[in-house]
Write a structure and sequence with these properties.
single chain, 371 residues, alpha+beta, five-stranded antiparallel beta sheet, four-stranded mixed beta sheet
C-alpha cells in the first residue's frame, strides 16, 4: 500500500486537486509555522465523501488533516510532514434547520459562524462562540473555540448539543439526540470537541442558541497602567456582575490600532478595558453601567465612555481589529505574528501581565496584549 495507490483511489472517489498552486495554498495557514505542501486536496461535498476519503486513507495508512475555514493562528492545519492528504469540508456550508421554538439549529461543518449569525438574527437568536471572522463550525468544534462571549456563555463545548462524526475507518456516529437531557454514559460530544480531528471528522452539528438581549451597551474604560486595569477586571468578577463580555487591551495594542485604523482620530494609548452589558430592560442595563463606572473610578479610571445601539458595534470593533493591526507596530519590516494563550486565577491577573511584559522587553520582542 502506497501514497500513489491512495491518491488514485481518491481521484475516483470525489472532487480532488493536486496542482502546485493548490498544494502551496494548503501548505500554510495564518500562523508563522513553516509551510509543507500536502500530496492532494480532497473536497467533501457530502458526509459520504468524508467517509470515503477517511476509509481510503485509513486503508493505506495515509494521514489526513481536515480543514474548513483555514483561519487558524496557531498551525492547526499545517502538515508537519510530507505525504498528507487535506480533507476540505468548506463546501458543506448549509444551515440544515433552525428550530426557533427549541433554541437550536443544525448546520454542516463548512458553515461560517458570521453568516449563521446573520441568518439567526431574523429569528431574534444568536450563537455565542465568536472567534475570527473566517472561522467555520467544523474547525470551531475541532479546536473548542471560545471568543469574547466565553466569559458569559462558555466555550464551544458548552454550546453544542450533538454531533454527527465520521471515524477514521469511515464509520458514521451520532453523539446524542437533539433534546436536552442528562444521561449516564460517555459524553461523546464533549470528547470530540477540542480533539482537533484526531478522533473523527464532524459532518454535522446541532448548536445551542440564545435569545438576543433587548437592551445592550458597550463601555470603554482606560487606566494609567495595566495594574489598575487588571485590578478593575478582578473587582468586577468578584462583585458578581454578569457583564456579557469583558476584554483587555494594553497600551501597545491601542497604539497598533491607532496606526492601522485610526490615524486621524486616535484613541488614548492606555491600558483599556472593553465591556458589553445587556439587560431585559433599561433599568437593569443602567444598574450594570453604574456599578461598572463606580468600580472603574475606584481604580483611577481616566476615561469612561459608553455607547448604545449601532455605535456600540463600532466601539467593540477595536477589539476585533487588534490582531492584524499589530503589524503596524513593525511598519516597513517583514515580521511574523506569534500568538498564544495563558490562564491564571483572576487574583493573579496583574502579576502575569507585569511578568509577561518584562520577559518580552528583556528579550527585545515587540508585543501587545489582549485578554
Amino acid at each position: 500500500m502506497t501514497i500513489s495507490a491512495c491518491v488514485e483511489q481518491l481521484k475516483k472517489a470525489g472532487k480532488v486537486e493536486f496542482d502546485q498552486k493548490t498544494l502551496e495554498r494548503y501548505s500554510h495557514d495564518l500562523s508563522y509555522h513553516h509551510p509543507i505542501p500536502p500530496v492532494m486536496v480532497f473536497y467533501a461535498l457530502t458526509e459520504r465523501d468524508i467517509s470515503n476519503c477517511l476509509s481510503i486513507c485509513n486503508q493505506h495508512s495515509v494521514p489526513v488533516i481536515t480543514v474548513s475555514g483555514r483561519s487558524s493562528l496557531e498551525g492547526h492545519v499545517v502538515p508537519i510532514t510530507t505525504g498528507v492528504v487535506i480533507l476540505d469540508t468548506s463546501y458543506m456550508d448549509k444551515v440544515v434547520a433552525i428550530h426557533q421554538e427549541d433554541l437550536d439549529c443544525v448546520v454542516e461543518p463548512g458553515c461560517n459562524w458570521v453568516e449563521l449569525a446573520s441568518e439567526l438574527k431574523e429569528y431574534g437568536l444568536f450563537f455565542p462562540p465568536d472567534p475570527g471572522m473566517a472561522a467555520m463550525i467544523g474547525g470551531m468544534c475541532g479546536t473548542n473555540c471560545s471568543g469574547t462571549f466565553a466569559w458569559r456563555y462558555g466555550t464551544m463545548k458548552d454550546n453544542v448539543i450533538s454531533l454527527r462524526v465520521v471515524l477514521a475507518d469511515g464509520t458514521v456516529i451520532k453523539t446524542r439526540r437533539r433534546p436536552t437531557k442528562s444521561s449516564a454514559g460517555y459524553d461523546l460530544t464533549r470528547l470530540i470537541i477540542g480533539s482537533e480531528g484526531t478522533l473523527g471528522v464532524v459532518s454535522q452539528a446541532t448548536l445551542r442558541l440564545r435569545k438576543i438581549p433587548t437592551e445592550h451597551a458597550v463601555v470603554m474604560a482606560q487606566f494609567p497602567s495595566i495594574v489598575e486595569a487588571a485590578n478593575t477586571a478582578m473587582s468586577i468578577v468578584q462583585s458578581g456582575l454578569m457583564v456579557n463580555r469583558m476584554e483587555f487591551l494594553d497600551d501597545y495594542a491601542m497604539k497598533s490600532i491607532n496606526l492601522a485604523h485610526s490615524p486621524t482620530n486616535p484613541h488614548h494609548e492606555k491600558a483599556t478595558l472593553l465591556f458589553e452589558c445587556v439587560g431585559s430592560c433599561k433599568a437593569s442595563l443602567q444598574f450594570q453601567l453604574d456599578s461598572i463606572s463606580t468600580i472603574c473610578h475606584q481604580q483611577n479610571c481616566i476615561l469612561f465612555e459608553r455607547e448604545f445601539s449601532k455605535e456600540s458595534a463600532k466601539l467593540w470593533n477595536i477589539r476585533k481589529s487588534a490582531f492584524f493591526a499589530s503589524k503596524a507596530l513593525r511598519s516597513g519590516v517583514e515580521c511574523d505574528i506569534m500568538t498564544t494563550d495563558a490562564a491564571v486565577p483572576i487574583s493573579h491577573l496583574a502579576d502575569i501581565l507585569i511578568a509577561t511584559r518584562k520577559d518580552l522587553q528583556d528579550n527585545n520582542i515587540g508585543n501587545f496584549a489582549h485578554y
